[in-house]
Amino acid sequence: MIYIVVGLIIILFAYLEAFDTSKKNSRIVLAVLCFVLVFFAGLRDGVGTDWLAYYNFYLETTDRVEIGYAFINNTFSEFSIHYNIFLLFTNSISIFLIAKFIRTQSPFYVLGILIFYSNLFLYYNFSGMRQAMAISITCFSYSYALDKKFIKFLLLVVLASTFHSSASVFILIYFIPREKISFLHSIFVLSGFFVFYQFLNLISDFITLYTANNANYYINVIEKSDSLLTLFLIGITVRLVILIVVFTFKKKLFAIKNFRYIFNIYLFGLLIYLSTYMISPDIGVRLSSYFLIFDIIIAGNIIGVVNNAKYRVLIVTIFSLLALYRLIGYSKSEGYNYFSIIENAL
């Protein structure tokens, strides 16, 4: 239930921001909501499907994960720092970088935070902690790709890959077209993706010896849901909402500087999702997340170009319903029964 309550609070601020076209309070609200998310994730106790694995990494130290996460994990562990301090530290970095990404690339912030919270925050910051760090770093690296500063962009992607090797796929955004996609460019990008995929195991060996085994585990060992096709179709429907809204206001949106590039990155992520999900839902979601997270930027830009208050309210309502749908799912999951160290200390 707490996930829905937090979601409703964010939704309330999203509606208020939709009416406040001056954006005077947006930065304050963004900061407050980010602090809430940091403490929400950082003070949890036993929450998240991967809690036990990460907690054991911390208690015993580890060399079984990517070197970037292992370094931070082992450093905090060897100094006998409380695990929740470590969680507060890692989530502060992750959420700060996401907030910076939203602030620099979107005119409106709260709707993006709502989408991030319901779609990626609970999935990664509560469970896939390494990838939460990796995604936040790739989001930060986007500005260097945008400015065509390839070396800085590459170094940040490499850094992200030391937290989760899947982040290396983000290098492809540098080669995604920044204008309207031509047929030949589409073939080039697709070819690049498949070549990259063939060398993914080789690249992963430089980061961790366990990545290839993990990929095999996700494909062949994890039990696939009996309703896999239904979940796939629901995932497509949710993501197509972005496309429908974008094309409804395409004239104004595509007039925004760099919006075409952002939208092309999102389309590329959707392509990855469509092509990999039925092979392995986990891999499909993990790979596509680096690109589909750009929906938090697209949503803010949509609010920015819509002048009619009724349409802004309608858009916030649509995304709020999608968010609540996801949050209800988390509320029903046993692995997400929320407990905090504060609650347990009383």
Give structural notes:
This protein has helices at residues 2-19, 26-42, 51-60, 67-78, 83-105, 110-125, 129-146, 150-161, 183-198, 200-204, 211-221, 228-248, 250-253, 259-276, 281-292, 295-305, 309-331, 341-345. The protein is mainly α and 346 residues long. It has one domain. Helix 6 (110-125) crosses helix 7 (129-146), helix 6 (110-125) runs antiparallel to helix 16 and helix 14 packs antiparallel against helix 15. The model is unreliable at 203-213 and 215-223 (pLDDT under 50).
Number of helices: 18
Number of strands: 0
Secondary-structure element pattern, one letter each? HHHHHHHHHHHHHHHHHH
- Total domain modules: 1
Secondary-structure-derived class: mainly alpha
Describe the oligomeric state of these chains in a short phrase: single chain
> Residue-averaged pLDDT, rounded?
86
**Main beta sheet:** none
Compute the gyration radius: what is it?
Answer: 20 Å
Taken as a percent bin, the fraction of beta residues is under 5%
End-to-end CA span: 21 Å
- Unreliable residue stretches: 203-213, 215-223
The geometry reads as globular
Instruction: Estimate percent helicity.
Output: over 70%
Notable features of this structure?
346 residues; mainly alpha
State the gist of this model.
The chain is mainly α and 346 residues long. It has helices at 2-19, 26-42, 51-60, 67-78, 83-105, 110-125, 129-146, 150-161, 183-198, 200-204, 211-221, 228-248, 250-253, 259-276, 281-292, 295-305, 309-331, 341-345.
Write the layout of secondary structure elements.
Blueprint: H1 2-19, H2 26-42, H3 51-60, H4 67-78, H5 83-105, H6 110-125, H7 129-146, H8 150-161, H9 183-198, H10 200-204, H11 211-221, H12 228-248, H13 250-253, H14 259-276, H15 281-292, H16 295-305, H17 309-331, H18 341-345
Helix pairs in contact: 1-6, 1-17, 2-5, 2-6, 3-4, 5-7, 6-7, 6-16, 6-17, 7-8, 14-15, 14-16
